[in-house]
Amino acid sequence: MGYVKRTLLAAPVAAALLAGPAQAGEVILVDGEHAVSVHDPAVPSRAEIELGPAPRAAATAASEMSGAGASRPWRRSSARATSAAAAGRAVSRAIGRARGVGAADKRRWRRWYGLSLRTLSKLSGARATQLRYVVSSVERLALTGALTASRMPLAFLQLERNRQYWRKLPFPAPGDQVSFRGSQILFQYWAGEGLQLHPLSTFKKATHLHGFCERREPTCDRAALRSLLDEMTRLAARRSPRFIAWEYMFHFGGGAPPWISGMAEATGIQALVRAAQLLGEPRYVATARKALGAFETPPPLGVRTTGPRGGVHYLHYSFAPGLYVFNSFLQSLIGLYDFSRLGPDGRSGQLFREAEPEARAELPFSDVGDWSRYSYAGAESTPDYHELLREFLESMCIRRLGDVYCDYAKRYQGYQVDPPELRFVGPRVAPEDATTSIRFTVSKLSAVELKVYKAGSLAFQRLATVRRGGGSFAWQPRSPGVYTVSLAAKELRTGLGKKDRATGEIEVQAH
To answer: For the chain, which terminus, N or C, has the lower number of CB atoms within 10 Å?
Structure first.
């Protein structure tokens, strides 16, 4: 069975979408027994919603929320596994004890759990692996006392969605986004872990829907925006008595579920408060306010920590207190700032003011001279993450939150579009039959090619990848005379292939 690929919207507006926004993404839309790959301009692209490099080195034993389970998925096949019957009883008891939950919901969740077990018994291979992970996740939460009433809507909805999908629908590719007819929320496929709700992707979709309406575009769909935010409100978990949060329910980068992301939380708060104004729904402001506690609570429950420059920092991952991701931190600040202005909300404004000085202090450490870093003292950004950081810096600049953000936004755009600057340094004179270093400087990571000519004939050629700064090629001239040096540099990061050239002469002197 394969996918049928089509546009999501009806013919009258399809033409307007062919040149749609860059953020338009692909989503697998499930409708009963069928799955269709559709182009939806509201669905964020993969580049927008990647979780980032797995932070295994930053994860610690504290990554696990109290009562949330072990660092590995609970599986019946392990030597210490609890029996299937015990797991089933734990799930049933958790449902029965859930306070504030209606009888109809409890009956539906029990039925979904039973159907998932029966479906799993009929599956094998990779399909069984995906569904087994999600079943085991629910059972692990129940066995450790973490299957609380507020987590049940997401836990059992995710279970039912995976049951529906893995029976016989086409296998997705890792990272594919999936939605179900009648729902606006987005799941993402993680190999070995099934379909998982992606709060960041879903709230980014809400941001796009809001933008379409603000700009009065044909793709404006207020009903879809309202439906999405209502669904996400129902799926928020009470992570502590102080706040609600949108949790990730799978293992990632050394972190055990349920964990949260400061970036996803801030994007959710921002989407809620914007929609509250657009749709005239003050209840969304109330929901956003309930989520602020994540930025007041240290990990692993929340995302507030002390940053590398000594101020308040908001984490990308609640389980990785030593990983300071630049783009995520800025988006957290933007979400809090927008809430403080649009809410309006003094508490979110205070949270913004407490952390913004740390962002200013950290920002210079994101610059490697010709590109950006993904995280503090970490690896360099991929092109997508460099652009994401530039966009968030531009957003801070537009909001007039400091000239430093404007300066770095402009600088990082220059790193993307400016060609490399190449200069021949020397030598001007070299001895015959002796090894000589032909030296040069280049302004950014580039492939540098050297060609040396004598009387128009190629005498020597080399190619190397060179980082920003000085470089050299070793050359041993075989005869005296005047040689022409030709250097060419092609930048490697952006894919634009911009080039620069430099030339010079070397007089080779006889013994």
So the answer is: C
Which residue type occupies 80?
A: R
Kindly state the tokens that stand for 216.
């009065």
Decide if 316 contacts 265 (C-beta within 8 A): no
How many domains does the chain fold into? 2
Residue 415 has what DSSP assignment? H
Q: Please provide the size of the chain in residues.
A: 511
Helix (H, G, I), strand (E, B) or coil at 507: strand
Using CA atoms, how far residue 84 sits from 69, 75, 141, 447, in Å, is 17, 10, 14, 58
Dihedral, 497, 412, 385, 373 alpha carbons, nearest 10: 110
Same domain, 129 and 152: yes
Which secondary-structure segment (H or E) carries 446? strand 446-454
Which helix or strand (DSSP H or E) is residue 453 part of?
Answer: strand 446-454
Q: Give me the helices (H) in 312-382, please.
A: 326-342, 346-362
Same domain, 320 and 469: no
The Cα-based distances of 144 to 67, 91, 141, 241, 486 in angstroms read 6, 10, 5, 19, 68
The whole domain housing 475 covers: 422-509
**pLDDT at 74 exceeding the cut of 60:** no
* Number of CB atoms found within 10 A of residue 343's CB: 20
Extract the tokens encoding 319.
Answer: 């389980």
CA distance 439 to 427: 7
How many C-beta atoms surround the C-beta of residue 406 within 10 A? 16
The whole-angstrom separation of Cα 422 and Cα 438 is 13
Q: Which of 353, 378, 413 represents a domain boundary (last residue)?
A: 413
* Nearest C-alpha neighbor of 225 from the set 211, 246, 244: 211
User: Based on the domain organization, do 394 and 427 belong to the same domain?
Assistant: no
Looking up tokens 């190449």 gives 422
pLDDT tens sequence across 275-334:
999 999 999 999 999 999 999 999 999 999 999 999 999 999 999 999 999 999 999 999
| Alpha helix positions (H), 55-198 | 84-97, 103-122, 125-143, 152-166
What is the sign, positive or negative, of the torsion defined by CA atoms of 46, 49, 55, 60?
A: negative
pTM over 0.85: yes
Q: What is the pLDDT of residue 144?
A: 95
CB of 178 closer than 8 Å to CB of 186: yes
Encode pLDDT of 89-138 as tens digits.
999 999 999 999 999 999 999 999 999 999 999 999 999 999 999 999 99
How is residue 185 annotated by DSSP? -
- Hey, is 30 helix, strand or coil? strand
Q: How far separated are the first and last CA of the chain, in Å rounded? A: 77
Nearest to 393 by CA among 415, 372, 409, 375: 409
Tokens representing residue 35 in the block: 């799955």
What is the DSSP-derived secondary structure letter of residue 33? Answer: T
Does 193 share its domain with 164? yes
